């Protein structure tokens, strides 16, 4: 199951928009994620290998999900197969594989649904197929070439959200012991170490001290990066990548709280806001989410703030549902750091020298999860306008709720499917190129890991960084 | 004799298809209504208020804004198609009501006009499925069946109204008989009988097929939820079963 060499079609973008490619059936069929490892599956309470009698188990799971998810039941039934969504998915645009058209992707599940649950449609010639090895292989391939980004839903006349279908398919596969190494490994790491990267507590603390020294060298002040401090006002849950890869963003948080005089802390039990359970099944999503509130109780904080991470925010908005009530915390909750900061900027909490960012032309990438699944559209833009003189938006159909996914969301940020990632990231890269921006700001750690590679691959000369990084540069301490 | 038998069968079939349509559709919509929506998944930017949700749903049902954003040609075809269907549908009220209320007579002429127009968008949608490769890829037999049924119904309908006319008085006697549960034989007019039979088929097909989008759209969680998950705690009815607290 290693990545085959594939040549995706040559496309000539115009004004930052990629033309819709002709179909190449099966062109990305060989690009699959590595399968899960026994130890990870055990750690997250899933079958360690494909269960015997898996067909029946899978159909039973589908039956169960149909009674639990209105989205699934309704969306499987009402799709008119109109094709409006067909050219809206970055993975179709990039790969040209027709199974990456949202409707066709959903049909991979729909045909199994019809076979077992809609005998009438089978009888009238509806496309129906028993759940067999080949179908399972298609599911494993194409439901892991979907980043659950919800772009298709914006264009569907009935709001059919293919992400819901993908989630159901992944949940069914997980139940029969079929999952990817990357996603399951990340969830297992959270249970073991508290974060997606598996950074042990002592290393986390070390990194924080190192960043404190950096800040001291940069500002001459004793700006703290507190860890596990009981009684702090704020628990900040960030993407763990901020602690060692996107350190500018992490230091920006430090400066922000220092300047505001708010005591804050991170937690070695839950030093991760991201929630890969979201990309696997409900149970693990709930379990990962719970850790954050447990840490908040343990540390007796007054508020939890979520850092610059897209899927963290997508899961965070459901915290009250999954792990609430949250009424032991000060309202409003949950809070995204961009909401928090934008609000303070408006209230004049900072002295800002915008010209500090004059060396860059900034554009903004809406992370699919933050924007489309978390309604975070205005606050990051308000922050950029307040901290930069030069800000340019990408083409209209590629931003806000119509934003493209970076190409590696939804548990796809794994190297074995690099060709899919690069193809899926292309629509974003071209939109970015058309602005001539030299800095692409985005509040998401997945995007921050994926987009620099995408830009390099497609030869777009733009640096990628956080939104708070801009504030950090412009604020006068 | 044979005619009486045929008439009897058709009448029985008409009642049966009507029952299937109503019961089938009611069952599906009931299923949608009772299936829980565990998490809020509002499509961004979402309405904050109930009024906002109703406006959004009304817009979705009447003008297809998402489709407009997605594909203007498809939108035009689909919108004209649905408007024609609605007007033709209303025009048929005159065959089922006695006396015919004035506002329905007023709708007669646009209704007729739309009957003529209807095949155009229908054929366009059919053509798209065959001629555009992506649409061909996703189209299956049910997609062709539903369009074909509607095209045939429209064609036979126009024929009996204009070219091989059927007596209105006979039709009304038949329809009112059906409605009052005292059925009389239908007009012995082959094209009319075909028209009527195809409508019955459509009614049977409706609740089992993708045509349930007609009612199902109102149950789409991305469209019918309020975007207030940050303001108000939303409870998933089966969350407790998962057994993690
Ligand atoms: S959710 Fe996103 S990645 Fe998945 S099919 Fe829709 S547009 Fe494509
Ligand atoms: S836009 Fe919606 S109804 Fe049309 S094919 Fe896609 S999912 Fe189906």
Summarize the structure.
The complex is a heterodimer of chains A (477) and B (245). Chain A has 477 residues and is mainly α.
Summary tags:
heterodimer; A: 477 residues; mainly alpha; four-stranded parallel beta sheet; three-stranded parallel beta sheet; 47% helix; 4% strand; globular; B: 245 residues; 14 helices; binds iron/sulfur cluster
Can you describe what's shown?
The complex is a heterodimer of chains A (477) and B (245). Chain A is mostly helical. Chain A contains 21 helices and 7 strands. Chain A has helices at residues 38-43, 54-68, 70-78, 90-95, 102-117, 119-123, 133-142, 151-155, 162-175, 181-193, 201-219, 247-260, 282-298, 310-316, 319-323, 337-346, 368-372, 378-387, 418-435, 445-457, 468-474, and strands at residues 234-237, 264-265, 303-306, 335-336, 362-364, 439-441, 463-465. A 4-stranded parallel beta sheet of chain A has the order 2-1-3-4. A 3-stranded parallel beta sheet of chain A has the order 5-6-7, sandwiched between helices. The radius of gyration of chain A is 22 Å and the shape is globular. The model of chain A has no long low-confidence stretch (mean pLDDT 95). Chain B is mainly α. In chain B, helix 1 runs parallel beside helix 12 (190-205). Bound molecules: iron/sulfur cluster (2 copies). Residues 79-85, 102-103, 156-158, 160 of chain A line the site of one iron/sulfur cluster.
């Amino acid at each position: 199951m290693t990545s085959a060499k594939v040549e995706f079609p040559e496309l000539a973008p115009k004004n930052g928009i990629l033309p819709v490619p002709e179909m190449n059936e099966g062109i990305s069929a060989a690009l699959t994620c590595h399968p899960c490892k026994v130890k990870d599956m055990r750690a997250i309470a899933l079958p360690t290998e494909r269960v015997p009698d898996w067909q029946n188990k899978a159909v039973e799971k589908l039956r169960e999900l149909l009674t639990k998810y209105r989205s699934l039941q309704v969306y499987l039934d009402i799709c008119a197969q109109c094709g409006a969504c067909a050219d809206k998915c970055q993975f179709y645009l990039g790969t040209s594989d027709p199974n990456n058209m949202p409707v066709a992707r959903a049909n991979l599940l729909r045909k199994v649904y019809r076979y077992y649950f809609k005998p009438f449609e089978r009888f009238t010639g509806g496309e129906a197929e028993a759940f067999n090895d080949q179908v399972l292989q298609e599911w494993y391939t194409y439901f892991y070439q979907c980043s659950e980004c919800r772009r298709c839903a914006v264009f569907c006349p009935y709001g059919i959200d293919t992400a819901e279908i993908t989630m159901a398919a992944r949940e069914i596969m997980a139940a029969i012991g079929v999952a990817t190494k990357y996603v399951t490994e990340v969830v297992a790491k959270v249970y073991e170490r508290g974060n997606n990267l598996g950074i042990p507590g002592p290393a986390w603390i070390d990194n924080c001290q190192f960043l404190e020294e950096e800040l001291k060298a940069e500002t001459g002040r004793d700006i703290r990066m507190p860890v596990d401090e009981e009684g702090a006002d704020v628990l900040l849950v960030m993407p763990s990548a901020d602690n060692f890869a996107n350190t500018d963003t992490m230091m920006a948080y430090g400066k922000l709280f220092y300047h505001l005089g708010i005591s804050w802390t991170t937690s070695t039990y839950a030093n991760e806001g991201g929630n890969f359970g979201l990309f696997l099944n409900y149970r693990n999503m709930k379990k990962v989410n719970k850790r954050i509130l447990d840490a908040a109780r343990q540390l007796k904080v007054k508020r939890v703030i979520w850092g610059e991470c897209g899927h963290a925010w997508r899961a965070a908005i459901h915290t009250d549902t999954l792990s609430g009530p949250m009424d032991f915390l000060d309202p409003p909750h949950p809070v995204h750091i961009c909401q928090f900061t934008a609000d303070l900027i408006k209230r004049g909490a900072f002295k800002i020298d915008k010209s500090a960012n004059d060396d860059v032309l900034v554009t903004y990438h809406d992370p699919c999860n933050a924007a489309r699944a978390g309604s975070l559209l205005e606050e990051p833009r308000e922050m950029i306008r307040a901290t930069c003189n030069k800000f340019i938006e990408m083409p209209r159909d590629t931003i806000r709720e119509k934003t493209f996914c970076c190409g590696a969301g939804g548990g796809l940020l794994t190297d074995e499917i690099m060709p899919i990632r690069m193809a899926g990231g292309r629509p974003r890269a071209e939109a970015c190129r058309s602005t001539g921006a030299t800095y692409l700001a985005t509040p998401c750690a997945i995007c921050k890991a994926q987009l620099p590679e995408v830009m390099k691959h497609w030869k777009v000369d733009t640096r990628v960084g956080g939104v708070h990084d801009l504030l950090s540069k412009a604020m006068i301490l | 004799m044979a005619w009486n038998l045929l008439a009897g069968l058709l009448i029985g079939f008409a009642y049966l298809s009507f029952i299937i349509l109503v019961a089938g559709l009611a069952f599906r919509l009931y299923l949608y209504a009772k299936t829980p929506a565990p998490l809020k998944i509002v499509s961004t930017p979402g309405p904050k208020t109930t009024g906002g949700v109703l406006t959004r749903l009304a817009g979705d049902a009447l003008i297809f804004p998402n489709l407009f954003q997605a594909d203007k040609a498809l939108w035009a075809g689909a919108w004209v198609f649905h408007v024609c269907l609605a007007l033709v549908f209303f025009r048929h009220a005159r065959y089922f009501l006695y006396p015919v209320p004035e506002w329905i007579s007023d709708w007669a002429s646009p209704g007729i006009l739309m009957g003529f127009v209807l095949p155009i968008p229908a054929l366009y949608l059919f053509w798209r499925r065959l001629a555009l490769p992506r649409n061909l890829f996703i189209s299956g037999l049910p997609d062709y069946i539903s369009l074909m049924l509607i095209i045939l119904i429209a064609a036979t309908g126009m024929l009996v109204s204009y070219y091989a006319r059927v007596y209105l008085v006979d039709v009304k006697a038949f329809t009112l008989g059906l409605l009052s549960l005292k059925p009389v034989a239908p007009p012995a007019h082959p094209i009319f009988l075909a028209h009527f039979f195809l409508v019955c088929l459509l009614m049977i097909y409706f609740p089992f097929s993708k045509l349930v989008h007609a009612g199902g759209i109102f149950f789409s969680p991305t469209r019918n939820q309020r975007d207030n998950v940050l303001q108000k705690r939303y409870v998933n009815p089966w969350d407790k079963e998962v057994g993690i607290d």
